[in-house]
Amino acid sequence: MRQSRKSQTELVAYIFSSVLGITIALYLLRGFGILTFLPGGVYLLLIVLTIATGILYGILKTLRY
Predict the structure, then answer these.
(1) Over the stretch 33-62, which tens digit does the pLDDT of each residue have?
(2) In this structure, which of 6, 30, 37, 41 has its CB flanked by the most CB atoms within 10 Å?
(3) Nearest Cα to 20, choosing from 58, 56, 51?
(4) Is the Cβ–Cβ distance between 19 and 49 less than 8 Å?
(5) CA-CA distance, 43 to 39, in Å (whole number)?
(6) Transmembrane residues, as ranges (predicted)?
(7) Is the pLDDT assigned to residue 1 strictly greater than 50?
(8) What is the SS3 assignment for 32-65?
(9) Taking the C-alpha atoms of 39, 41, 46 and 48 in order, what is their torsion angle to the nearest 10 degrees?
(10) Element spanning 30, H or E
(11) What does the alpha-carbon distance between residue 65 and residue 48 come to, in Å, rounded to a whole number?
(12) Is 25 exposed, middle or buried (0-12, 13-18, 19+ CB in 10 A)?
C-alpha cells in the first residue's frame, strides 16, 4: 500500500524534529564539556542530516498532490 502525502510529510517532520533535537542536545553537551570524546565529524554529520531532512520536509510540505 502506498502512504498518503500527509503521512509521508508527518513522518519526515518527525524524523527532522528528532534529528534536530539530538543534534542540539549533543552540541550543548559538547559545549558544556560533558561529551568531549565524540569527534567533530559526528557533529558535522548530524548537522548535514538535519539540513537534508529539513529541506526534504520543506519540499514535501509544498507539494500540491
Answers:
(1) 998 888 999 999 999 999 999 999 999 989
(2) 30
(3) 51
(4) yes
(5) 7
(6) 12-29, 41-60
(7) no
(8) CCCCCCCCHHHHHHHHHHHHHHHHHHHHHHHCCC
(9) 160
(10) helix 5-31
(11) 28
(12) exposed
The maximal CA–CA distance of the chain, rounded, in angstroms, is 47
For residue 43, give the C-alpha cell.
557533529
pLDDT of residue 33: 92
Distance in angstroms (rounded) separating the CA atoms of residues 55 and 47: 12
CA angle 34, 38, 43 (to 5 degrees): 105
Cα–Cα distances (Å) from 38 to 4, 15, 45, in that order, read 38, 22, 12
| 61-64-9 Cα angle (round to 5) | 30
pLDDT tier for residue 4 given thresholds of 50, 70 and 90:
confident
